[in-house]
Amino acid sequence: MRVAAFSIKPYDRESLAAASVGLPLEWVWLEPRLDRDTARLAEDAEAVNCFVNDSLDAATLERLARLGVKLITLRCAGFNQVDLDAAARLGLAVTRVPEYSPHAVAEHTVGLMLMLDRRLHKAYNRVREGNFSLDGLLGFDLHGRTVGIVGTGRIGRRVAEILLGFGCHVLAHDPGVDKALEARGVRFVPLDDLFATADIVTLHCPLTAATRHLVGARALSLMKPGVMLVNTSRGGLVDTRAVIAALKRGHVGHLGLDVYEEEADLFFTDHSGSVIQDDTFSRLLTFPNVVVTAHQAFFTKDALDAIAAQTVRNLMLFQRGAPLEAEVRA
Ligand code: NAD
Is 249 designated active site? Predict the structure, then answer.
């Protein structure tokens, strides 16, 4: 089966090729992002494989369907980039990789918290320049602090477990209460109460129409002065302009982002030799108390291997006409 793989980086190619050794899969490795213009590159492919910033809107899906594509496999857990109604109408099956490594994202999330709290980003540069002063590096103990986790699915649950280990008070908000977490001491509370009580707010819910700009001016106004906000979920959960205003007022004390609402034109590419045109993003990078990583939370060898294994498994199931795993429906 011919599979057109978009947004492919050398590390994706390596893991997918290794997972398909000896299998009847003919990969077409494509560096461009999938959108309505690049969809034509999937010619003669029966399946398409893509990632978080590929655009699978109705027009793109219609073009893929016209080319004979029948299956879309996502190399990620999130599926907010897919118009699922259009996919259903066109008879395109869509699969994702729901649980490749919740540990990877959860551990990166806690890494951002520690980096911001203990100013490790500043300390690293300072020591290399021969400046061993501690002025400006004062942090706080995570032990005893209150952390609010929005979304206790696979990743949020793991973040809660790690932070319980640090001795934090863990609050959570999720439409479904996780009884096992509750039994371990996590308190499920209404969202506004979480915002008002937490010293650290971390986002782990999906991006949907209902959660877009979940953290905007109103939510920020409820949060404690000096709050730490961490988002490793999806950029659209946070109204970046509102957060910048809150950072300027000193209301947000620390901001850790692995995702950004307009990341599609920036992340996963080397822009070091060019001028960044996104002024909002550039402003974020000027704050001493902001750390941005470029959607790397998932990026561990364990996660890449698991993504490749699940992707190849679904391609083979599809080829055999067997029921698919982790199919996403409207
Ligand atoms: P999941 O589906 O296992 O869990 C999501 C949880 O959010 C569920 O428990 C759900 O009930 C809850 N939820 C839904 N709406 C909510 C709301 N309005 N308020 C609070 N909770 C709500 O998903 P997951 O695997 O834990 O992934 C979480 C997020 O992390 C996803 O958005 C995914 O796209 C993102 N992610 C990011 C990276 C990265 O590299 N940065 C990697 C993987 C996943």
Answer: no
